[in-house]
Write a structure and sequence with these properties.
The complex is a heterodimer of chains A (219) and B (290). Chain A is mainly alpha-helical and 219 residues long. Chain A is built from seven helices and two strands, in the order αααββαααα. Among the domains of chain A are: 1-67; 142-219, no CATH class. The two termini of chain A are 14 Å apart. Chain B has two domains: 1-30 and 255-290; 32-252, Rossmann fold (3-Layer(aba) Sandwich). Chain B starts with 10 loop residues before the first helix and ends with a helix. Classes of the chains: A mainly alpha (219), B alpha/beta (290).
Chain lengths: 219, 290
């Protein structure tokens, strides 16, 4: 029962999900809309709870076992708790029951978003430029013909994607565009078709009950 | 210093060079020629072709603060284009992290236009010319449901106002009333719109993406499933140029401001790769001779 019920539900929902698209009956469309707009959102809400619970347990366990960098877990859990309390009781702009302003200093959710989350997020992503420069210098070697071709293409696209490339040679953006639209697209399309066929095959195996690893338990 | 030692440059020097390459052009702006590539021109033309009396522009801004530098100027440029042509705009987000950014963008561009407006008709009025409908999870739900009823899936806007009380929503029901969906993203959301909204409801889709995501979208540009695309900060800068050229809008263009930094940073990365390769071959030759 533990595995048969989820499997039966999956097969039922999977087959309905596929066939509903080809059934122009108001009843089928209404059921499809109900499953999508209501049931799917309830499941998503539970997934959020599951994810949050998992995150808290994982970091709590890391602190208890004093694993490497466990200090960061304190930061995560404290930030999570403080932000949740401010959000739940202080409102997004300080309209809640919890005071979120001390003189000129405010700490409501909107302020935390504007003054903490946006700068921190942008800072994290901007670090990529520095690490990419370092990694490219250390690992990008024209060791053979293929690696040389890759390097040459990368240089053309990198220069073609910035105005300086156009200033150096007006046709460079066109060459860069050709690389993106012809060799890149050909390779990407092949990869995408392979992935899609693989996904379709796996989906059919799951719907037929052949692939059951998603049920857990290893069998 | 021997050439073979170039293989072991301390990474702090690389970080310093990159830092200077980024900061100096921001402090000392460069004027560089800005051509417009086909994908950006395609998106501009598709938006420009919208009949403001019949259809609206739907901007789905699905990025997080991490990619603000690349994606946010796209939202601002699209809003300026739509407002200049008086195309009604519906703005939504598929990720909650984007909501604050889009709220700020809508208010910023409205303020820019209203500062120049001389009459009520010239002004950009919230609810008449633009509506920010906010966030509804999970992404697949609003993408599909907007094909049946936009106000049905967004009963209230971002500010809590019933969306069917906004004047512009009286004539905007579903994707039939949308000229194009411009999905600006740091993920694959433009492809979700192609897969679910376009195949089922036939709505045109355009993309705005980070530079690293752009190669993924070219096959869809080739097939015409994407009407156009802004790829990375360069794509945003090209769109800003098109808006400036066509409508004379000279407000702050942040993507263009970043083009000098991006140009020099690319050159610095390439220079380090060249140095690394010279050192690699010099070392290999020396080892071969030994």
């Amino acid at each position: 029962m533990k595995s048969k019920l989820p499997l039966a539900l999956l097969i039922l929902m999977g087959i309905f999900g596929i066939t509903s698209r080809f059934i122009p009956h108001p009843g089928a469309e209404a059921l499809n809309a109900y499953l999508r707009d209501t049931l799917l959102r309830i499941i998503s809400a539970f997934a959020l709870i599951l994810g949050l619970g998992n995150l808290i347990l994982r970091h709590w366990s890391k602190i208890k076992k004093k694993e490497e960098n466990y200090g960061s877990s304190y930061v995560l859990l404290i930030s999570l708790t403080v932000t949740a309390i401010i959000g739940l009781f202080g409102g997004t702009s300080g309209e809640g029951i919890l005071p979120t302003r001390i003189g000129e200093f405010s700490f409501d959710v909107n302020t935390l978003y504007d003054k903490v989350m946006i700068p921190l997020g942008a800072t994290m992503f901007s670090l990529l430029a520095f690490y990419m420069a370092s990694a490219a210098y250390r690992s990008f070697r024209a060791k053979n013909t293929l690696a040389f071709l890759l390097l040459a293409s990368a240089f053309i696209v990198m220069l073609g994607q910035v105005p300086l490339g156009q200033a150096l040679w007006s046709e460079l953006p066109s060459v860069s565009h050709w690389i993106m639209t012809v060799p890149n697209t050909a390779a990407k399309r092949g990869i995408d078709l392979g992935i899609t066929l693989g996904v379709t095959a796996t989906l059919l195996k799951i719907l037929a009950g052949i692939e059951r690893s998603w049920l857990g338990g290893g069998s | 210093m021997r050439v073979s030692n170039w293989m072991n440059i301390d990474r702090r020097w690389i970080f310093l060079a990159m830092g200077l390459a980024i900061v100096v052009p921001l402090l000392l702006p460069m004027r560089l020629p800005m051509g417009v590539q086909e994908p950006t021109q395609g998106l501009f033309d598709a938006v420009d072709a919208i009949d403001p009396e019949k259809q609206c522009l739907l901007i789905s801004s699905d990025y997080t603060p991490q990619t603000e530098a690349e994606n946010h100027p796209m939202t601002v440029a699209l809003l300026r284009h739509a407002f200049a042509r008086r195309i009604p705009v519906i703005s939504v987000v598929l990720y909650i992290e984007a909501a604050g950014l889009i709220d700020a963008a809508v208010k910023q561009v409205m303020a820019e236009f209203n500062a120049r407006a001389t009459t009520h008709a010239d002004s950009i009025i919230y609810g008449r010319d633009v509506a920010f409908l906010g966030w509804q999870p999970p992404p697949i739900v609003p993408i599909l449901s907007m094909g049946e009823s936009i106000t049905g899936i967004y009963p209230v806007d971002f500010y809590g106002t019933p969306s069917d009380s906004l004047p512009m929503m009286a004539r905007i029901q579903d994707y039939d009333d949308v000229g194009i969906v411009a999905a600006l993203s740091s993920s694959s959301s433009p492809l979700w719109y192609v897969m679910f909204a376009q195949t089922k409801f036939g709505v045109p889709v355009g993309a705005g993406c980070t530079a690293v995501m752009a190669p993924d979208f070219y096959p869809y540009l080739e097939t015409g499933q994407l009407s156009g695309m802004m790829g990375g900060m360069k794509g945003a800068a090209e769109y800003e140029v098109l808006v400036e050229r066509n409508f004379g809008i000279t407000d702050r263009a942040r993507a263009n401001e970043g083009m000098g930094s991006q140009s020099i940073a690319h050159v610095v990365i390439m220079a380090f790769v060249v140095v690394g390769n010279i050192a690699f071959f010099a070392t290999r030759r020396k080892e071969g001779q030994a």
